[in-house]
Amino acid sequence: MVVHRAECRPVVSDNYMKIKRLQIESVKPQRFSQQLDKAVTTIFKPVANHDFNVEYKKKKKSEG
User: Fold this and answer.
1) pLDDT per residue over 9-33, tens digit each?
2) What is the CA radius of gyration of the chain?
3) CB under 8 Å to 16, separation ≥6 — which residues?
4) Nearest 10 degrees: Cα torsion 37, 42, 45, 46
5) Which of 4, 19, 26, 39 gets the highest tally of CB atoms within 10 A of its CB?
């Protein structure tokens, strides 16, 4: 049977607030995710301009 409820509060001082802030920052995740507006395209197909392509373009340009 509980007769009296104890209310415990810490003494609010600069040292207490500093420790509290450090504790909150330590719990905060190091990485966080962000939602991007559009997809990031990092795959680019290489374009090779071979000799026969260069000759074909020159031939096509000279003919018309």
Assistant:
1) 888 899 999 999 999 988 888 787 8
2) 34
3) 10
4) 130
5) 19
Return d(Cα 10, Cα 17) in angstroms, integer: 10
What burial letters (b/e) apply to 35-44, b meaning 16+ CB within 10 Å? eeeeeeeeee
Matching residue, tokens 């905060």: 28
Q: Determine the Cα–Cα distance for residues 51 and 5; give it in Å rounded to an integer.
A: 90
Please provide the average confidence, as pLDDT, over all residues in the chain: 86
Nearest to 53 by CA among 43, 61, 64: 61
Q: How far apart are CA 20 and CA 11, in angstroms?
A: 12
